[in-house]
Amino acid sequence: MSPDGPASTEPVDALPTADFFDFESLLSVQEQRKLQEVREFLASEVAPYAKDWWDNAEFPTHLLPKLGGLRLSAPTHRGYSNLFAGLVISEMTRVDTSIATFFMVHHDLFVESLYEFGSQEQQDRYLDDATNLRTTGAFALTEPEHGSDVAGGLQTTARRVAVDAGTPDDGGGQWVLNGAKRWIGNGTFCDHMLVWALDEAELDAGHKVIRAFIVNGNLPGVTRTKIENKIALRTVQNANITFKDVRVAEADRFAGISSFTDTNYLLRGSRLMVAWQAVGQQLAAFDVARQYALERQQFGRPLAKFQLIQQQLVDMLGNAVASMGMMARIAQLQEDAYVDAKGERHGGASMAQVALAKSYCSARMRETVAMGRSILGGNGIVTDYRMAKIFADAEAIYTYEGSFEINSLIVGRNVTGVSAIV
Question: How many CA atoms lie within 13 A of 272 on its CB side?
Fold first, then answer.
């Protein structure tokens, strides 16, 4: 074979995968089979269409029954390991970041909140439909003027009131919500949203008490507007939501939530899943860049025959493997978490450890997708070749569920004992 012949005599699918250290082998045989089922579903139902959904900023609602059929809602509640749950999100992201984001918002925030903080009655009413995606949910916390500082800057309020005349009442009364939320994933079409608000009566008394409510998205006084002109996660339907004298039954308040500590428990879990998304983005970037380097001919030979291209691919692979290693260890830590007889949580990864995982993996992701985009040259800026979509979506992952900077400062506070945030 001449020096300028094919870069490899092996088909791409016979070459080592981006999971170069085979973290997937840590899964049980059952979990490996289930993960393969997920891959096959994504290959047939998502991969061929994801570009068009993204380009058109449209969400494939027709996919929901099929997604529900995978029976993967809140996997750890179904007996799967934390590593499996993370790898599912990574694999979804590898194919389409937007679908993975929808899945996370619905399952890891809305459904998980029902498991952790919902009463038995609320679980009986909402869980079956939500876990099977017959209904969809959102997590309404971030506000127009408060993102990273929402813990101290929350402005949406809830006021306890008597029930309107003629309105059915279970004896618990109602709450009136007023305020606004922004960047709410699934917000344009969700059936229900978990809305966080300050208790007005407690605020008048000088106390900041957080309340959380399951709010039907079609209640009078709820206005939902799609956020347009995004350059990332275009398939995800983010919304601006306003609440004007929205009445919610006491039966739809989460009685177990009274402080931002409860919110942080949910955010810690979702932040972990976003870190897994950062892994999936790197796997996707490596897949696309390697395929392109093997097929694209320049100067009479494949790009993969050039030393600088091989160095970039190796650097991308190293970033991906390092990120997977960190996340696999976090998954092990999560397996040690437990709730005692008093309902108090112990063990598991700390918020600082999760913050380091999110900041580190998202930084490596940014490097990796940039190298991948560079390998594709001009073709790296059009979605026809996938890399442009991967590159753009990475910016959302770098920012949401705590920006790189905020997560870094959470870790800095932990290792120095001094806060540089407030």
Answer: 30
